[in-house]
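Late entry, evening session. Most of the bench is empty. Finally got around to the prediction I had been postponing all week. Sequence below, unchanged from the version circulated by S.P.
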Amino acid sequence: MSHLDDETLALLALGEDVADAPQRQHLATCATCAAALAELRTTASLGRSALAVGDLSVPGPRVWAGIEQELGFRASTTMTATPHLAPRRRPRRIVVAAVLAVAAAAVVAVAGVRLLAPAAPKVVASASLAGFPAWPGASGQATVTSSQDGRILDLRLDARSAPAQYREVWLISADQKRLISLGVLRGASGEFAVPQGVDLERYDIVDVSSEPRDGNPKHSGDSIVRGALQVDS
């Protein structure tokens, strides 16, 4: 059979399975077609790897239309459909340019997904919380994570409950003279927003207190557990 046309070689270089059995047999025995395919695969690989994320842009409809017209695609098909193979051969420079364009589009798609996906929250501090003598067996764990939405303190507490009281979570300064209430802990675990601007190296003590329902916003002095945050630098 005759050599494979440039359109088929280009699609094979891009990973499309468009060759039939006779074409695959020809490709396995024809040094000319094998060399051409290897060249186009190298071109596609370079097109994917040479583009920096900051340089990416999405090709417009007119660009795609020009590529489809040059490669002989039907207007109603997509790049993954079986192409209409025109009898004439395209100039090699046009086929190479088309391969590069499609490779670049693949990079745009992958990079776009990565850029749009939110970054996973990062752990920035943690503490093991030990029980006070009045609360034998009490323990807990605190973890602070940071994301684009801010910092969250995740607190887990293992302690008995006290009737007619509630538990409050605090950040306390290293000199134990200043306190910031993060909120009420309902149940054995909870998440609390760390106010913007709070320096966790200064307010590095996590405290959970048992509070009477007396309307007094101050710390009762009855701490259940407490521990010092280890801040990741």
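Two things to note before I forget:
Residues 6-116 form one domain.
Confidence is low (pLDDT under 50) at residues 51-56, 76-84.
Will write this up properly tomorrow.
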